[in-house]
Amino acid sequence: MAFRFSPADRPPNVVLVYIDDLGFGDLGRTGAVGYTTPNFDDMASKGMFLSQYYTPQAVCTASRAGLLTGCYPNRLGFAGATDHSAKTGINAEEETIAELLKAKGYATAAFGKWHLGFQKQFLPPHHGFDEYFGIPYSNDMWPNHPVNKNYYPPLPLIEGDEVVATNPDQSQFTTWFTERTINFIKKNKDKPFFAYLAHPMPHVPLFVSDKFKGKSQQGLYGDVIMELDWSIGQIRKTLRELKLDGNTLLIVTSDNGPWLSYGNHAGSAGGFREGKGTTFEGGHRVPCIVEWTGVVPAGVVSNNLAAGMDMLPTIVEATGASLPKKKIDGVSLLANLKGNLSVKPRETFLFYYRRNNLEAVRHGDWKLVFPHPGRTNEGFKPGKDGQPGGGNENFNHQGGLYDLRRDPGERYNVQFDFPEVTAELMKIADEARKDLGDDLTGSPGQNRRPIGRVTE
């Protein structure tokens, strides 16, 4: 089917940038020191910063599943971070942002890290993307892993759905994937397009090109962030030069918080508790900046609750595309993005981790954390120069009720001071357990859907 759009009725382009392991405190505007992020900061000054944005889950694969489908990852059977041994991936019956926009005539492309299954049937060209160039899973899943040496095979670099190289030069990743995104934008400047740029950095192992090597005062990690900032600048510059910035929704965010055990090769959670791999704020609350010249008001900070699953319905409303046929969990943030902050599209967020553990619930400013086994890095010596430090993967977290307005660090349990709030959040948790299940209480859930499985 051929689509033709006049300039007057052309829907907006969408560029969605997903950065791996970027912490809330890793930008200049959120407190980073030893390097600058002028492009991230300028984007926020000309767009909107979402201060209460949560990634769908605090780990790679699950987070990406939630972003691209608008669902809690566990609704679709996703948990954790899959590797080369997995026989699962995104189910063909689930509809991604790319599939919804492609049905409306958009050109679509994905560049960078995928991580929703590495077999052909799971790769981007089979889920709505016209083009793909990148790696199928995390960049540490290769023979040089610092702990599991020789467990992983050579890291594949994929074009379309074919491997074109193995163990590619990771110092070129940020440059390659940025340049591919820019070329895609230029090639499709006269029609609506959706570009999904999923940077593998600053996930360890860290690599940076010669352009930024040694440029920061924070070592290799700072260099990597500076190059990612350059990437954002190149994309924004291209949109301005092509006069597309007024008709392009640009979203930049992270898949989860920093991997704290890697010490000086990890980012900053900005003072929030814990980091990646936990349901505390440091694992879930990450930077999110949205720019759309002339539509999103400049220099606004939204303190409304938002989540990665909300990007799909937001993009659908902005573009006039259709929502997926199956139930999703996201809500449109478009009214907020246009400046109406009195509207609160999202009031509740469910914090799931491991296979299907409901570890916490947020409603309004209140967060109820349930007792659960989980990761902690507190009290352990961090790693250095690419080697992980200590930590406990099965620490017995006691839980509690936290007022995130006064206590975003989740340090002061007020559960027994506010029994009515605790009861309200418990009701929300009980409904979630009926819907999505909860391994901590032995609840299977009624509305979970099957993950995709290898058919070859």
- How would you sum up the major sheet? 10 strands, mixed
- The termini sit apart by 30 Å
Radius of gyration: 21 Å
SSE-based structural type? alpha/beta
Element string (H = helix, E = strand): EHEEHEHEEEEHEHEHEEEHHEEEEEEHE
Shape summary: globular
The CATH architecture of the largest domain is: 3-Layer(aba) Sandwich
> What is the number of helices?
9
Instruction: Tell me the β content.
Output: 15-25%
CATH H-tier superfamily of the largest domain: Alkaline Phosphatase, subunit A
In short:
This is Sulfatase-like hydrolase/transferase. With 456 residues, the protein is of the alpha/beta class. It has helices at residues 38-46, 60-69, 97-102, 173-187, 219-241, 281-284, 311-319, 334-337, 419-436, and strands at 13-19, 48-50, 53-54, 88-89, 107-113, 131-135, 156-159, 162-166, 193-199, 248-254, 288-291, 300-302, 306-307, 348-353, 357-363, 366-369, 372-376, 392-397, 400-403, 452-453.
How are the SSEs placed, and which strands pair?
Layout: E1 13-19, H1 38-46, E2 48-50, E3 53-54, H2 60-69, E4 88-89, H3 97-102, E5 107-113, E6 131-135, E7 156-159, E8 162-166, H4 173-187, E9 193-199, H5 219-241, E10 248-254, H6 281-284, E11 288-291, E12 300-302, E13 306-307, H7 311-319, H8 334-337, E14 348-353, E15 357-363, E16 366-369, E17 372-376, E18 392-397, E19 400-403, H9 419-436, E20 452-453
Helix pairs in contact: 1-5, 4-5
